[in-house]
Design a protein that fits this description.
The chain is of the alpha+beta class. Among the domains are: 30 residues; 93 residues, Beta Barrel (OB fold (Dihydrolipoamide Acetyltransferase, E2P)), CATH 2.40.50.860. The protein contains three helices and five strands; from the N terminus they run H-E-E-H-E-H-E-E.
Length: 177
């Protein structure tokens, strides 16, 4: 079988003369003409359907925004909201010192008055606290080792922050008794 490419009708011999010269319009385009008035000679723009990629991206944006809001709420509750406020304890201050490498804060220890007067239970621990306010810390240092009982007002947080001190108990006020 010998093929001759010089024959002009070789590839077009089965071409239908009645076939449309333009392809049919896609199904996504509206079939009716646009009702908008166009003042220029440009044809009206047909609306496009939203792509799947855009919907997926919107889902990820919602997911990450919910995660960020939940994380921010957790951090705020854990580190910045005290779960015990205006609590008081009476006792004797044994130690107040300034500690820290980058954030210098005052840390203190106090023996509770109830632990000293209770004869049925064994003495278990000291009250350990942090003092972010310098004036309160200086007042506590002057009362340290004096043998005078003091009443401290403190707040307790779930977590510690480096600039607030190493303890979850933060002393806000001190008054000698």
């Amino acid at each position: 079988m010998n093929f001759d490419d010089n024959n002009p009708d070789y590839f077009l011999h089965d071409f239908d003369k009645n076939a449309p010269s333009e392809p049919e319009r896609p199904a996504a385009e509206p079939q009716e003409p646009s009702r908008r008035i166009h003042f220029d000679d440009t044809p009206p723009v047909t609306p496009q359907l939203p792509s799947k990629r855009r919907g997926c991206r919107r889902g990820w944006v919602w997911f990450f925004s919910i995660v960020i809001v939940a994380l921010a709420a957790t951090i705020y509750i854990r580190y910045f909201t005290p779960y015990v406020t205006d609590s008081r304890m009476t006792g004797y201050i044994t130690n107040v010192e300034r500690r820290g490498i980058f954030f210098k804060t005052f840390e203190g220890e106090m023996i509770s008055e109830t632990a000293l007067t209770d004869t049925t239970r064994v003495y278990t621990r000291d009250f350990v606290f942090s003092i972010p306010d310098d004036s309160v810390a200086r007042a506590m240092q002057s009362l340290q080792g004096s043998g005078r009982p003091v009443r401290v007002t403190y707040e307790r947080f779930y977590g510690t922050l480096p600039w607030r001190g190493a303890s979850t108990c933060i002393v806000t006020a001190v008054e000698p008794r």
